[in-house]
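Predicting structure from sequence has reshaped protein science. With that in mind, we have picked out one protein's residues alongside their backbone shape tokens:
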Amino acid sequence: METPFIEPGGCNHAQLAFLTVIYGYVLYQASDLISGGSELLMLVPSVAGIVGSIVLPILGAVPDGMMVLFSGVGPNAQETVAVGVGALAGSTVMLLTFPWFVCIIFGRVKLKSGKADYSDKGPAGLLGSGITFGPSIRKNAMIMLATTGLYLSIQFPATMEEMMGADIKQQEQGEHIPALFGLVCCIVAFCGYLVYCFMDANEDKQLAAVIEGIEHKQVTIAAALQFIQKTSGSQKELLDKDRDRLKKVCRPFFKRYDFDKDRTLCKAELKPLLHDLGYWPNEENMDKLLSGPPSGVTGTSLATSMDKDGDGKISFDEFVDYLYSFMRDPKRMEKAPDYSNPAYVKYSEDDDEEEEGEEFPDDLAHLSPSQQMMRVCFRSFWMMSLGTLLVLVFSDPMVDCLSEWGTRLGISPFYVSFVLAPFASNASELLSAYTYAIKKSEKNMTTSLSTLIGAACMNNTFVLGIFLALIYIQGLAWQFTAETVSMALIQWIIGLLAISSNTQTVPTGVLILLCYPGCLMIVWFLENKLGLD
């Protein structure tokens, strides 16, 4: 079959290096086009929820999926499929290490009481600094760890075949049905993950309506607290997700009282809070309420009871803690006015630090809203289409180049693909991690790390599913025990780090970064010292 691409086997080393760089750069640009086109659709309200929860994860996995696909369809598929395994393992491990390390290094702030103090975004040293992310990371990490179990569907029968001394042909026959079973499991897990992403992205619209009402002064602080109380998962203590919802409700009130926008509240700025909490002070007793014990607070002033660290200012976390204690006191809640407008149900995106809406491209700013929507949809379509086309066209010759490098260097193509392929197909994630990190906010850090964990979940379901389909249809044998063990082990290390603490420091970041070369070392040790395939 004729092809416009140069056969790598006929090139000298310099020519092969040049081809590899060119193909890698094209795949990088293709990945960037797909990502950019998908993000443009976030500007279209009618599809924004679907784009962020479904379209972006799928298209983000397309480059790796295509490299796996093309690695297993040639005449020497059993040998070249190692390139696909390298792309799968390299992409998964690289996304969970390099960008994560970038987030910690460039997003770190000074720690305060063991948590990242995002109110102080000044320079932070390597020690005594770190990042804090939201509780959703822990949940996503658990899902990632669960999806690593899908590898057992093919690894277990493959190990059994090897223990019985089966040759490649016997392995292919023995793994035929398990590959089909694993493929079905991957499809179910993939669809289930997309459903979860969609529900997670669009859940709690009622909370969004309450926040919108707060911002338009249609919902009082007591009514908002009552809403959190009634819709929380536990009536005794707030769960992590409910405390996160409480913060979202408190944020617009805090902004309202913070007149000088210094992200802290002083005594004077607490005066409107007294009104909203039902104390109804006048000019004569205002100072007394602030300096002495208000009704319902025994032995301490309102300002003192909120200012836990005694610095004379009320931080947002101290504000939330006080309102949480207020919400838990039925007597004080009864005195607070609880007016709310039930008809106010518009949706509004909130931000943990600042309101950051999606901005239209500058060249479309002069157009009417309807024209902007039309242009955005058209631009998004051609960017994603062109990016996908480039991936389909250049993945196959890239696989040939990586396979040829393995042959010339006398090493498995897995190692070459592990190192080079991810930086071609996933380089945009590195830039995205840096972009989010420098904003130095908990929300942006959570968004960035969620994207990285989500990419690993997509590799464990969507890309692995493509691999299992190749094994079933092409009759290939799974001979990647060392690669599977090392890839799963790295995911478990990083996943457990994310689950154990929502604050990570620079030393933790260095440990995570070392997992990337560590994965290759584990593969080498398992293959050369323990004799695993």
